[in-house]
Amino acid sequence: MSDQPMTSVSQPLPIVLLGAGGHGKVLLALLRSLGLEVLGVSDPQLAGKVADWQGIPVLGGDEALDHLDPATVGLVNGVGQVVGSSRRADIFHALRARGFRFPALVHPSAWVAPDVKLDEGVQIMAGAVVQPGVEIGANSVINSRASVDHDCIIGMCVHVAPGAVLCGGVNVASGAFVGAGATVVQGLMLGEKAVVGAGATVVRDLPGGHLIIGSPARIQPSRFL
Ligand SMILES: CC(=O)SCCNC(=O)CCNC(=O)[C@H](O)C(C)(C)COP(=O)(O)OP(=O)(O)OC[C@H]1O[C@@H](n2cnc3c(N)ncnc32)[C@H](O)[C@@H]1OP(=O)(O)O
Predict the structure, then answer these.
(1) I need a labelling partner for 207 at 20 to 30 A (CA). Which of 44, 147, 182, 192 fits?
(2) Which atom of ligand 1 is nearest to the CA of 182?
(3) Locate the PglD N-terminal domain: which residues (predicted)?
(4) How much distance in Å is there from the Cα of 214 to the middle of ligand 1?
């Protein structure tokens, strides 16, 4: 992980957005809120059908990138990370191997502590909170209003979905997915490609490749009175 975040400030190249779905739409709003120049969007679903999407040019499908010089544009991965699909990660790795760069992006309404380490292509969406000591690996998304508390270590290609809460010192391995509104209590480990279902309350480590859903909430006499 690089020491210096490759933010929109350190790399103000014009941007090409990859993917015109829901995540792409939210990212376009983020890019505009940062005042970055957006050259257009590439999306195979729109290529040859429409010339304009959300007020920016449709550059074509995947082949549109063949005409771009990796030294002169930054890419933003607008493909959302959904459970069971590696498409977002595949696109990042393939284009990174071709020399394209992905700036890390932080929405102006997010709070990110000054010492947080953001690797390439990290996306911190509106209203998110990322506290001191956190490290976030390449191509990961901290989605709208999610909270990542102190000293969490998050691997590559992780999605912390809207409103999810990682308490302090949680370790999330690459490719894991933390569903919307889920809570992971402090100090736990989520293994590679682990999936936490929306709304779950996680109170034990979750091994890689496993899914957890539901909440362990149980009513019982209090021992704190
Ligand atoms: C900006 C954005 O939109 S980002 C996207 C954010 N999205 C999310 O966070 C969604 C996360 N995904 C989930 O929570 C999914 O429901 C998963 C991955 C946990 C399970 O998905 P699937 O395997 O397709 O589950 P499916 O819908 O078939 O449901 C299977 C059963 O599990 C239950 N179930 C599914 N998800 C949950 C959940 N999160 N919590 C509790 N129970 C659940 C269903 O009710 C169903 O129960 P039933 O068999 O008694 O009817």
Answers:
(1) 147
(2) 9
(3) 15-81
(4) 9
**105 in Cβ contact with 120 (< 8 Å):** no
User: Which ligand 1 atom is at minimum distance from the Cα of 84?
Assistant: 18
Q: Looking at the predicted complex, does its ipTM rise above 0.90?
A: yes
Which tokens is 110 given? 């997010």
Q: What is the pLDDT of residues 59-76, one digit of tens each?
A: 999 899 998 999 999 999
* More confident of the two residues 84 and 3: 84
CATH class of 15-97: alpha beta
Domain boundary assignment for the chain? 15-97, 109-213
pLDDT of 4 = 41
Output the pTM of the full model. Answer: 0.93
What is the architecture of the domain spanning 109-213? Answer: 3 Solenoid (2.160)
The amino acid present at 50, given as its one-letter code, is V
